[in-house]
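task queued by scheduler; priority normal; single chain, no ligands, no partner chains; default sampling; output format set to structure tokens
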Amino acid sequence: MQTALGQLPGRRKPRLGDVIVFIWPKDRSKDFIKRVIAVEGETIEIRNRLVFVNGHPRDDPRATWGIGVARRRRQLRALHRAARSRVCHGRQS
């Protein structure tokens, strides 16, 4: 039976919020520990230290990128206000 690299047979596909542990490719004595923020078919983008999934900001308190939760929340509120303003003024993008 052939399996995908790093996937154990009989296991389910990763879901949003799952924690994944794998070997760091540059130093096989260390592990990467990461949380799933998007699943197959979704697009991830980092803009101004904020995580966007499919073009929408992901409001996840664990994804701070070193800027702090309060600052990240202020940035998200500003993005939401700007998006509402574009829709209200007929400039929907």
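post-processing summary
- Residues 34 and 55 are 21 Å apart (CA to CA).
- The two ends are 46 Å apart (CA to CA).
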